[in-house]
Design goal:
Number of helices: 7
Largest sheet: 7 strands, mixed, barrel
Structural class: alpha/beta
Number of domains: 4
Shape: flat
Order of helices and strands: HEEEEEEEHHHHHH
Strand order of the largest sheet: 1-4-3-2-6-5-7
Radius of gyration: 52 Å
Helix content: 55-70%
């Protein structure tokens, strides 16, 4: 049977369209001869996400974004439909996130997050089910929560470093350190002067006599002794400065640690409570009816005490002057003397 030209053109066009459609789907990543399952996810923002963008699982493409539309007509909720290979079984606690793979091009993909075997659900999602979508803002909040403790530790470290540097600065600017540096500079200047003198002596050494050479030897020994003494003094002073600096740094660290560990708020609260109690006690003494209040505020009680004190004092004076008025010897009757102001002598037996 002979085909007409029109029939041949029609068949060729149909084959070309079939190849074009299959090739287009193949380039998008769709498997042509295997089954696929459709899932949905809801996001608040789909910036950068387009149809036909890849769906990844641990970096491997397992599907494509099929459709993006508003959910229930709302402008703050988007329903994303995507397809994955039918061979891939997703546990019911799987979630999907959007991830930017190219900051320059702005391409965004969907990433499936399947829990570990120990945490994975025993049930699996079915074709057409909705997967939990996690917005990028939630990921940023999680990262922020993890970074805040690190930031606080860095801030504390910077405070400690600032205190340490301040202590070192105080040490370096102290009068003792400045005096030591001045002494070292003066010693170096003296050594340089001595070396300059030695250079002048060496230039004229050929003109020296034996006595002159002996004098040069004595000078060299003196210079050597001076250098050793200076070196010993400098090393000792520098060691002392280093030891003092270490002590200051250790004290600074201990003070910083005690300040960090101290519960200042509790101490202030206890002090305020003690002050309140003292104020209440003072108010009660000034305005109350107790013994302490009467002793302080009642003039009559004070005057009575003053009178009693005066009478006791008078009694003691009279006892010292006339003890026989208050003592009866050998069982005899008590005798009375009329003179109350002078010292009396008891009658002799």
């Amino acid at each position: 049977m002979k085909l007409s030209n029109e029939t041949k053109v029609g068949l060729l066009t149909a084959v070309a369209l079939t190849i074009l459609i299959l090739g287009y789907n193949y380039l998008k990543g769709q498997k042509l001869f295997s089954g696929q399952q459709t899932y949905h996810a809801v996001f608040n923002n789909v910036s950068g996400l387009l149809k036909a963008n890849p769906v990844l699982l641990s970096g491997l493409q397992v599907g494509l974004v099929e459709d993006i539309q508003l959910k229930d007509g709302r402008t703050d909720s988007f329903l994303v439909t995507f397809i994955v290979d039918a061979e891939l079984k997703l546990p019911s606690n799987t979630n999907v996130t959007m991830q930017s793979t190219s900051p320059v091009l702005g391409e965004t993909v969907l990433t499936l997050n399947i829990p570990s075997i120990a945490d994975a659900s025993k049930t699996f999602l079915k074709d057409g089910d909705t997967v939990k979508g996690v917005d990028q803002s939630s990921l940023l909040d999680t990262a922020k929560d993890e970074l805040i403790p690190i930031k606080e530790k860095v801030d504390k470290m910077m405070l400690t470093l600032d205190s340490t540097l301040f202590a070192i600065n105080v040490i370096l600017r102290s009068d003792e350190v400045m005096k030591t540096i001045e002494n070292v500079s003066a010693s170096v200047g003296n050594v340089q002067s001595s070396l300059a003198n030695l250079e002048g002596i060496v230039e004229n050494v050929n003109d020296f006599t034996e006595n002159d050479l002996q004098h040069v030897g004595v000078i060299l020994r003196n210079v050597s002794n001076l250098s050793e003494t200076l070196e010993s003094d400098i090393v000792t002073k520098v060691d002392n400065v280093v030891v003092e600096a270490k002590d200051v740094l250790a004290n600074t660290e201990r003070i910083t640690a005690k300040i960090a560990e101290a519960d200042i708020n509790t101490t202030i609260d206890e002090a305020n409570s003690a002050i309140t109690e003292i104020k209440a006690l003072t108010h009660e003494i000034q305005n109350g009816d107790g013994s302490m209040s009467k002793l302080i505020n009642n003039d009559e009680l004070y005057n009575n005490i003053e009178d009693v004190s005066f009478n006791v004092n008078e009694l003691l004076v009279d006892v010292k002057k006339n003890p026989w008025r208050y003592i009866s010897l050998f069982g005899k009757k008590k005798r009375t003397w009329k003179n109350n102001d002078s010292t009396e002598t008891p009658p002799q037996e």
